[in-house]
Amino acid sequence: MELVTQQRGAVMIVRPVGPLTGAEAGPFKARVLELVRENLGRIVIDASALPYVDSGGLESLADVAAELAQGGKGLKVCAANQTLRQVIELTGLAPQFEHFDDANSAVRSFL
Amino acid sequence: MQANWPVTGRLSAARRDLLRGDSWFAVLIFTVVGVFLFSLVASVWNSITFQRNVRQKAAVQHLKAVGTVLAKASEALITADEISMLRRVIVEAGTEHKLKFCRIVLPGGGVLASADPAGITVIDLPLSWPDEISRPTEDVRKKVATLTFPLVVANRGSATLELSASLDERLYSGATPQTAQLAIACLALASMLLVHRHARFRLKAIGAIHEILLAVTDEHADLSTLELDPKLGAEAVAWNRLLSEKHSKQVCTAIQKVRDVVHEKSGSSDELTAAFDAVPYGLVLVNDRMQVERVNGAAAVLLQKERTQMVRADVSAIIAEQKVLDGVRDIVANPVPKRVAVTAEQGGSMARGVLKYTVCPVRRDDLRFGLVAIEDVTQQRVAEAAMNSFLAKAAHELRTPLTNVRLLVEDTLERCQQDPTSAGRNLNVINEETQRLERTVSEILSASQIEAGCFELRNDDVHMDQMLQQLKADHDPQAGARKIALEFELPPKLPVLQADRDKVALVLHNLLGNALKYTPEGGRVVVTATVEKGRLTVAVQDNGIGIGADEHERVFEKFYRCKNALTANVKGSGLGLAIARDVARLHGGDITLESELGKGSTFTLMLPVIEEAT
Q: What is the pLDDT of residue B614?
């Protein structure tokens, strides 16, 4: 899967393009954690191009959220489609994430 | 004297033991028992003595009766000259009555008859012998009774019957019950002594326990001092076991208390740590030795340090800002609490982040701490900088047409009477400037909405083939007027996007409009569209003036205009590309630029084609 990054002010928007599944979850998590450290936690996962995730993908998102939680921050996810939102809700991971309708709202939440 | 010491010591010890604790009771019992035993022994002894005397008298009386009878019979037998019969009677009497001796003695000492035949010295009875008148005698001594009876034999003379019998058997046979009674009493006494000895041995441990219980008033006394010698018996062992269990329980209780305290502290510590970590601001607690006492996760992230290395480290190794360090030092050293706020850029570059440090005093008893709160204000600073830049450029963009309008209005007012033609030209320019002002204001508004996050996107079905056809139709006249070849290279079928139709159209118009504006006459502009990997790509390529590599990113900044002299006469607010890229990004896409000065530019719009989940 491709990771498109955009710098919005001091915030890094990470947009995974394509499904986040098994084999891709590891590299995704490693790259996102690297971006988290580089940007001091100012990061947004733009899920607009993320059609669905499997258990491995959810685990990688949860790991990123846990890493951010150690710094008192939550993982901001924006533009998640209904399928992804339902999966997150059903697996009980919703409290670990901050949900926004679009990237701009997520970026503005850092103000 | 030396030999007496142990005895004296034992007596003293015995007296001390007897008078200690409940031993007086034992002494009393012993005394009573002693008196009882003494009375019993005395009674038995008295009884035995009395019985012996009675039996002794009875035996003597019995012996006297035997002698009397035997004397009468002997007189008759001697008178009848029945010596043999006499001797047989004497022998039988001696045997029957267990006499020590029994004999008839004539005057002169001759023994006529005797229970012991060997003692007979006069074989034949003489016809007569001297008559010696004697009296009956009775001699009882040394457990032997000796009686004499005078015999008077008519016409012959007198003789003496001597009887002697031992009183031992007769006397002591009757003492057996008393002896048995005494023996039983002695056995009882011995048994009681044994029981007492055993009971005393057993009670010794109980007495010691009793004394310990009375003596122990402090429940926190050292239990090891209360232990008894295990030789005192099972009670002492049981007591020691109880003490051991109590000691173990005390130890367990103490351990539990310690654990509770530790747990309470650690619990509160955990809660405090959890609370620290939940705070999105970095928190560093510094003690008066300028060491880090506590740090939260946010501080580790913001200061880009390992958390474990931060605790107990010198704060100067954690925070590089000298003002912050001075503030902390001042706070922990100064008894008067005050607050210090310092804003510093990490590494001197906003790109790495801007941190705001606030140092506040923390007081607890005599301890002084400094709490450094670290806030990541990078985004705020970026936003402020962007806003300031935006306002400055917006003011400039608004002032330019307004200045033109004001100058033209003044010129028109001055010359409208003399030169109506010039006045009309001025009015046309004023009209153009007003339209430009309107566009600029509109674009500023859009940019402001994007910046403020209130730029709303609709979710329309955008048929790209129709939109691109409309785009071509809209710009064909402009391209034709400037003799620019406008070509569209489109695939047979384009997808339907889920996007804001007007905003996507605005982006495409901006890109194509810019291409036509910055392409000289006779140039060529090609619009191509492709779909791959869930993405629609629309590229607008021209062979115009091109953009230098150093300006590739800057052209997307708000109000930025290229420095190329060829663009000086091209009017624009510098907001179009910025808005276009923001719109593309808000849709989850992007706009990229490939350009080379003098060779033209290619702006590529990428928009996601959302796939439905399978």
A: 42
Give the integer Cα–Cα distance in Å for B601 and B248: 88
Q: Count CB neighbours of B219 within 10 A.
A: 7
For B231-269, the pLDDT digits (tens) are: 777 878 888 888 888 878 877 777 777 666 655 555 556
| CA–CA gap between residue A14 and residue A3 (Å, rounded) | 6
* For A100, nearest residue in chain B (alpha carbons): B453
Residue B103 C-alpha from the chain's centroid: 110
Pairwise CA distance, residues B591 & B613, whole Å: 26
More confident residue, B540 or B402: B540
Both tokens assigned to B424: 């009309």
User: What integer is the mean pLDDT of B429-457?
Assistant: 75
Residue B460: partners with Cβ closer than 8 Å, 6 or more residues away = B498, B499, B500, B501
ipTM above 0.85, yes or no: no
Highest mean pLDDT among B26-40, B77-91, B417-431: B77-91
Contact of A90 with chain B, judged by CB distance below 8 Å, is answered with no
Size of interface A-B (CB pairs under 8 A): 99
A111:B383 CB<8 A: yes
Please, is B366 exposed, middle or buried when counting C-beta atoms within 10 Å of its C-beta (0-12, 13-18, 19+)? exposed
pTM of structure? 0.45
Chain A CB contacts of B455 below 8 Å = 104
B279, B379, B588 ranked by CB distance to A46: nearest: B588
Which among B303, B306, B352, B376 is the top mutation candidate for probing chain A, defined by the most A β-carbons within 10 Å of its own β-carbon?
A: B376
pLDDT in tens, B124-168: 777 777 777 778 888 887 778 888 888 887 777 888 888 888 876
Assess whether pLDDT exceeds 90 at residue B336. no
Residues with Cβ within 8 Å of B425's Cβ and at least 6 positions away in sequence, in order, are none
Interacting residues of B513 by C-beta distance below 8 A, sequence separation 6+: B475, B478, B576
Q: A51 to chain B: which residues are within 8 Å by CB?
A: 610-613
Q: What is the largest CA-CA distance in chain B?
A: 232
Q: Is B281 on the interface with A (CB under 8 A)?
A: yes
Cβ B581 vs Cβ B574: under 8 Å: no
The closest of A87, A96, A94, A16 to A55, measured between CA atoms, is A87
- Virtual torsion, Cα B536, B540, B546, B552, nearest 10 deg: -30
